Amino acid sequence: MAACRSLDPMSLLFLLLFLLVLSAQSRPELDPYKVLGLSPKASQAEIKRVYKRLAKEWHPDKNKDPGAEDMFIKITKSYEVLSNEDKRANYDRFGQLDDTQPFGHRRDNFYFDEAFFNFPFNAKNQRDFSENKHSLQFTKYIQQVVPDSHRRPYLIKITSDWCFTCLHIEPVWDQVVQDMEALGVGIGVVDVGYERRLANHLGAHRTPSILGLVSGRVFFFHYAVSRDLLLQFVEELLPQRLVHRVNDQNYLEFLGSWHELNKPHVLLFDQVPTVPLLFKLSAFSHRDHLQFGYVDQGLSETSDLQKKFNINTYAPTLLVFKENTDKPADIIQAKDLKRPIVDEFFSNNRFLNAPRLVNQEVFNELCPVKQFHRRRKFCVLLITDEEHSSGLEVFVSFASTNSQEVIRFTYVYQRLQQPLCEVLLLNSALSPPQVLILERRAAGKVLFKPVCQWNGSDQDKLHLQGALQRLQTDPSILSHETTLPQLNNEFASVFVLRWIYASCDYLSDVIEDILHNNWREMMPLLSLIFSALFILFGTVVVQAFSDSSEDKQIKIKPKEATATSATSSRVPKKNFVEVTELTDITYISNLVRLRPGHQNIVLVLSDASKNILLSKFAKEVHSFSGSETLHFSFLNIDKHMTWMRALLDQAQDPIPLDLEEGPDQRPDQRPDYSGIVMALNGHKKYLCLFKPVYTGEESSKSAEDEGTSVKSKSRDDHKKSSRSRTQWTLQLHHKLDRLGLWMERLLEGTLPRYYLPAWPGIDRITSQ
């Protein structure tokens, strides 16, 4: 009240006018109950009865009162509000008659309007008809789209109701859809709000997204949404080796491959430098039955080819070649080729005049199983070998004159389809080449009749022609019945090439995903790679520390730890081998205190065999000298026989030695240890033993004939003694022939080990 008293009269007047305006705006246009003369508790039957009476009374055609038309509108409006339960409840609660806000809610003088969130594109029934036609569900995608993607690529858009960016690409998307459907590309739309499972299956985690599907594989579009880039994206989905470039130099090779590929060949003549997308898409759809080539008429190296086939340069021309490479079997020429026309043209020329049965699928298409009497088809089959080329050419020429749809001409090679030929040749009662007529029935059954031995003569053609004429009037001439086995797939070896191509395509996809940072799509692959690396790293660590775990009490300096070489393929660091003598001076460093993992390869020799054995030893171990864990030494048995015997005596297990006596031995030095090689592990106190084995060409018998030792020094036996010395030298040289193989087994760890409680003392190796 104090605030009102402080206002001057003019301000108070404006305030009252403002309140009157607000009250006028908040007041409803009309009161439906007053207009109809009803109470707020009136029933629907009452409202309907009163409305009919008042409508008749105030209808402008019957009531000539000037205000009748306005009254009739009020009555109709009132009935519209009260007859609708929602509108009536809205009026009863809030006094609102505005149809644009029929569902307002009042909470403490705050009106929450649900219509604010009702965008035009939020209602599913108001979507564009084209999107409803192309909408995909998970079941439809798995059962229809994925199998169909092996014949044509699909372009799929990922969208949602709350995606404002999706509205900006709609005009471009509509234009692209119109162009792509004319070319035969499949279109799909996935709404994330309704098909979250399908979106996750496709790997689409954001909207809008556009992806391509071809042969069951998904590719994402990563560029700005434009018509040209989307057309280029669809073209890149197709295989790169789909259409071959053909010119004057290679057209004979291209057309002549019909025999190897067992397919007709298609040539498109056009003046554009790039292969049209329509032709690529059609080639992808029919690639299992046809081979495709493109001739650029704008190039000079294709002029002879255009003259040969009399090509019109003003319109694209399609030629189909079968067995005859000099004359096309079919031709079509149009200024504006359409996809349905091209598909029909290719479908009518899917097979050669006489195709070869290379697998069961081709056999099922050429010779289908009989279903109805009027749809029966017969196959004329030639069983031959690759050597009978003249008879095969005559058979193909005879097949090219066939104009009957119910008869198909085919042939097989007996060598490649042996099970089939054995059944049809009546267990070798007939010999190839042989012509038969057959009709397939259900459950693998077939009715057939051998016609004649086929050599391509005129008489053979008359026999076949007569049999076909009798077949039209009397199908019962097919008197033999049998069950056919499955055909061998002659193109199964091509699987390796397909696997290589698929691997290359997969690697390119991985690289593309990495470059475009599609980390969510790459997570399964990255997880697999890191798991493999973790397992590999763990295996290496376990192997590296497996030996050191046995010697936990000994601490090894980091600089002294080295890795043991597993193979002998390491490149030697020097072109010579360092071999030191094992004596009392080098005994401690070269044996007793060898570092863990190191071994000393010791050659046992004598004064007489020193030069020969050292040379051979260096040659055999040279390829292993690059390893830092191997050391090479020699032991003179003439000086250190005491140490050698002590070493053999202290072994915990008996060391098997079966050595022969040598000519340089003395009575107190038996047996002869020359040529023995020992791998001494100083840290773990064990040795591995190599026993010399003679592998020379000279036999032991000849050695016995010529003598192996000198029994006398007489002049009569001087010549025989010389031969004996030569033979002994040769045997000594071949003692280490198998040392390289022994070294390989040593590094692999497969040799038997002989452990010692301790190495013989240094006094045993001191020179006597």
From TrEMBL:
Segments for region (Disordered): 655-674, 699-726
Protein's name in the database: DnaJ homolog subfamily C member 16
Organism: Periophthalmus magnuspinnatus
Function, in words: Plays an important role in regulating the size of autophagosomes during the formation process.
Coiled-coil positions: none
Highest taxon of the lineage: Eukaryota
GO BP of this protein: autophagy
Transmembrane segments: 525-545
Keyword match Signal: yes
